[in-house]
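F.,

This is the one I mentioned.
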């Protein structure tokens, strides 16, 4: 009887967790709709018709280098995410032959997190003149990049420990979906610094914001599907296959990022 009661309590806990996750998702979609309706052109001080300054060759070269670096970073992370999604989708087949295959996708998250942590902002030491403390306290974009790297590293570490059988706590089941929803929300408020006097600056910013809204929507889908895949219900097997597919979709979106 105690085991039956524990099972009922466990099922109720999962149900409440799923309801909480959906409540957060509702908030995210509301925020997403609001952000789409209030684009940058309607923000105070943002004049779409304001004249833009012409770039000199040095400024143009710097702008191009920053653009190429940002696009490369997004695309490399997207590649890691695509590989992770593929291995998750095929894990049931591959792990029966090669047990080490179940470690691949968590390591993809760890690798992506390490890359973002170290290489996402080359103006920071050891690549640039700024100290980490100065950059993180004076540049919101740098700070957000490091938060995203911590999210990737945390998910990768927790999932790696789960794959190794060393982490079986109930909270670990909900770590990915909860942290994933948090990451999706942060994507809606991601700041992309740039010279607003550069040619086509407003159009570029709107294009970047639109892509990040798609990242947020895809990330939300991944988080929700992952949470439902871990919740006992009749659609559980469907969500077990759906969330890695959505992860691949997110990776493809990242891999197609442009500025």
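My design for it:
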């Amino acid at each position: 009887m105690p085991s039956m009661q524990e099972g009922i309590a466990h099922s109720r806990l999962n149900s409440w967790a799923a309801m909480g996750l959906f409540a957060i998702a509702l908030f995210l979609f509301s925020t997403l709709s609001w952000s789409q309706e209030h684009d940058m052109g309607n923000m105070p001080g943002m004049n779409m018709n304001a004249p833009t300054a012409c770039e000199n060759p040095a400024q143009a070269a710097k702008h191009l280098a920053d653009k190429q670096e940002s696009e490369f970073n997004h695309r490399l992370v997207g590649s890691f995410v695509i590989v992770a999604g593929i291995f998750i989708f095929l894990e049931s087949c591959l792990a029966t032959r090669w047990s080490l295959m179940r470690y691949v996708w968590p390591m993809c998250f760890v690798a992506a997190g390490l890359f973002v942590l170290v290489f996402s902002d080359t103006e920071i030491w050891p690549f640039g003149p700024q100290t980490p403390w100065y950059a993180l306290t004076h540049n919101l974009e740098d700070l957000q990049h490091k938060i995203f790297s911590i999210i990737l590293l945390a998910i990768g570490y927790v999932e790696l420990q789960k794959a190794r059988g060393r982490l079986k706590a109930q909270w670990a089941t909900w770590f990915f979906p909860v942290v994933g929803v948090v990451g999706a929300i942060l994507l809606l408020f991601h700041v992309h610094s740039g010279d607003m006097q550069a040619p086509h600056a407003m159009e570029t910013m709107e294009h970047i914001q639109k892509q990040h809204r798609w990242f947020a929507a895809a990330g939300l889908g991944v988080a929700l599907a992952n949470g439902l895949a871990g919740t006992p219900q009749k659609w559980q097997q469907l969500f077990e296959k759906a969330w890695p597919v959505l992860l691949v979709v997110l990776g493809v979106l990242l891999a197609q990022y442009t500025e």
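The chain is about 75% helix and 0% strand.

Talk soon.
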